Amino acid sequence: MKRNKTFFWTINEVGYTEPRWGVIIAVAAAVAFLLVLLFGSFRVIPAEKVGVPVTLGKIGSSPKYGLTAKWPIITSFVKFDKTTQRMEVLDATYTQDIQPAEVAYVFTYRIVDANAPALYKSAGKAYEAKLIEPKLHSALKDVVGRWTATELVANRDKVAREIEEKLRNEISSEFFTEISLMINNIDYSDAFEKGIEEKVLAEQEAQKAKNRTVQVEEEGRQSVIKAKANADAQIAEAEGKAKAMDIEGAAIRRNSQYLELKKLDVQAQMAESAKGWQTVIMSAGQANALLNIPSK
Question: What's the half-sphere exposure (Cβ side, CA atoms, 13 Å) at 104?
């Protein structure tokens, strides 16, 4: 039987078509391989990440961003976050007065993305455990050890700034930037915290007593000042009256008519204030008496 052949099919004399499966499979494989090569030559790095190319185990020297070309199949990318990274840490240490303390704090940083290949070459993806965590523990232990337990509680923000400054100097600025640390909590033993609470309460009560003493002393001082002012006023008033009497006596001694004029002045004032009354003046020797009789 005579057969005609095309690239993908075999046609016999009666027109029956048979697929050439070997050829079809070979072509499909070749197309698939070409597609793999084509699409495998590019990779998209997300905007929030930086890519470090690794080709057959060799780390590339240049970071990659966005759409980037690569060797198909043999090149892969290790991605690092460019955004701010956050570490929540609970670390144990001792204060200056040998009190055990558990410090809960938050440490944040960013990777210097331009140096991501060098960071990966130096510490791999476990860079936090190798390059950051030992520095955190060392800085915390060093700074907290300079403060007593009670001082540490009262100066938490200042202690955090000291630790942060130490970390800025000790953590590699080649790989990390925007370093920040915030202390959330400092936990001591139950017995020690109870002692601190009792001490604070005692200090508050002592301050209240001191304030009360100051208040009483001030009230006493004000009372003394008021009494002295009253006494001074009474003395001034008595001195004024005495001086007036001395002046009046001297006037009487100088002028025998002064007393008579004084009496007449009093009578005139009384007559003015008692209008409608009859006034009868009775004399007996040198003394005059004033008798007011209401008019009918």
Answer: 5
Residue whose entry in the numeric block shows the structure tokens 């020797």? 285
- Residue 70's alpha-carbon distances to 50, 60, 62, 102, in angstroms, are 15, 11, 12, 48
Cα 59 to Cα 62, 114, 130, 173: the distances in Å are 9, 14, 19, 21
Q: Which string of b and e fits 88-123 if b means at least 16 CB within 10 Å?
A: ebeeebebeeebebebebebebebbbebbbbbbeeb
Query: Please, are residues 19 and 8 in contact by the beta-carbon 8 Å criterion?
Result: yes
Instruction: Give the pLDDT confidence of 132-187 residue by residue, as tens digits.
Output: 999 999 999 999 999 999 899 889 999 999 999 999 999 999 999 999 999 999 99
Would you state the pLDDT for residue 295?
Answer: 46
Handedness of CA 20, 25, 28, 34 (dihedral sign): negative
More confident residue, 151 or 16: 151
